[in-house]
Amino acid sequence: MLDTTDASRIERELSRSYDIVAEVYDEKCDNPQMRYMRSLERQLLDAHITAGPVLDVGCGTGVQTLYLAEKGYRVVAVDISPEMVRTARDKLHEADSSCPASFVVASASDLPFAACTYSAVVSVFGPYSHVPRLQRAFDGLSRVVRADATIVMTVVNAHRARWWLGKSLRRQWRALRQALSSRESYIPFPLNGRTVNLWIHYFTGRELKQAMQRARFTVVRAGSAFILVSPAYNHSRQQALSPTGRFLARCEDKLRWIWPFKCLGDYLLLVARRCVDDERACCARDTGF
Ligand SMILES: C[S@@+](CC[C@H](N)C(=O)[O-])C[C@H]1O[C@@H](n2cnc3c(N)ncnc32)[C@H](O)[C@@H]1O
Q1: What are phi and psi of 105, to 5 degrees?
Q2: From the CB of residue 288, how many other CB atoms can be counted at a distance below 10 Å?
Q3: For residues 28 and 63, is the Cβ–Cβ distance under 8 A?
Q4: What is the pLDDT of residue 129?
Q5: 38 vs 30, 31, 210, 264, CA distance in Å?
Q6: Domains of the chain, start order
Q7: How far is the CA of 59 from the centre of ligand 1 (A)?
Q8: Nearest-10 crossing angle of helices 173-181, 161-169
Q9: pLDDT of residue 223
């Protein structure tokens, strides 16, 4: 367990690191694998976000903020990195300055909003995997949403099967030992000519579900992404997935909500609802991992 000083240091580091990443983030995500994941995210938002105002936690360069604002939802987007927020705001103004979105630089563990403000929350592509004070962050989230609010979230999975299999086949024992001994680590994000290290917490489905329950959320849908398709973090001129990639994506689409596959992708997907009643009643309805 991290103490407050360590947690604050990690948050300051992440803010600085993502400030550097902001400049290349959209370019690095411009590839067929990421487009595949973005289309999955949009399906989730279309199916589960039905009312605003919406809070986008860890908005990054505003991919989901823009998508939801263009659909007419009032969106407030939060990120710990000022440069990510600046990029997202510029993109929104370029697209349509009349879109109902606003931006705040803040940490997910100190959300500066009044109680019961939001009807929905989106936090995708791992922002909560970067939050060292997780329970405090989930409790804070629980405070700022209305009863029955919907949360769509994705976090990085500790039990990502492709990674474990790949490391085992390549006999990378050190990486395996390290991953077995701690679910916290620094991942390298390569930039042009340098590398930025990002602190990350890998979640198990069970841990995520329990932390959500303690904050009075009930999991209504649990799945995973990048089970068979491997993610890419580099610009590619290729527009669509390769024929093999398309085949794997079709298989993955059929498997992602089914046990055990829903526990095995690189990212855990979770749709949750803020309970109206107490934690025990909340857990009883849970259909999670
Ligand atoms: C991998 S990016 C995802 C961005 C965006 N949601 C997307 O789908 O592209 C993770 C984002 O979380 C933000 N972040 C990291 N720690 C955070 C914290 N404690 N509070 C708020 N945002 C945080 C980072 O600055 C970064 O923009």
Answers
A1: -90, 115
A2: 22
A3: no
A4: 98
A5: 11, 11, 27, 19
A6: 4-285 (3.40.50.150)
A7: 6
A8: 140
A9: 97
Taking only the tens place, the pLDDT of each residue in 26-51 is 999 999 999 999 999 999 999 999 99
Name the residue with the closest Cα to ligand 1, atom 13.
58
Q: Could you tell me the pTM of the whole model?
A: 0.95
Per-residue HEC secondary structure of 123-189 comes to ECCCHHHHCCCHHHHHHHHHHHEEEEEEEEEEEEECCCHHHHHHHHHCCCHHHHHHHHHCCEEEEEE
- Report pLDDT digits (tens) over 43-97: 999 999 999 999 999 999 999 999 999 999 999 999 999 999 999 999 998 887 6
Q: Can you tell me which residue has the tokens 């604050």?
A: 8
Distance 171 CA to ligand 1 centre (A): 32
Nearest to 128 by CA among 199, 54, 51, 40: 199
Counting as low any pLDDT under 50, the low residues of the chain are none
pLDDT computed for residue 61 by the predictor: 98
Q: Please tell me if the CB atom of residue 252 comes closer than 6 angstroms to any atom of ligand 1.
A: no
Q: Cβ neighbours of residue 77 under 8 Å, at least 6 residues apart?
A: 55, 56, 59, 62, 65, 85, 88, 101, 102, 103, 104
- Ligand 1 binding pocket includes 107 (Cβ within 6 Å): yes
Q: Which atom of ligand 1 lies at the shortest distance from residue 41's CA?
A: 8
How far are the Cα atoms of 7, 85, 129, 131, 132 from residue 13, in angstroms, in the given order?
A: 10, 16, 14, 12, 12
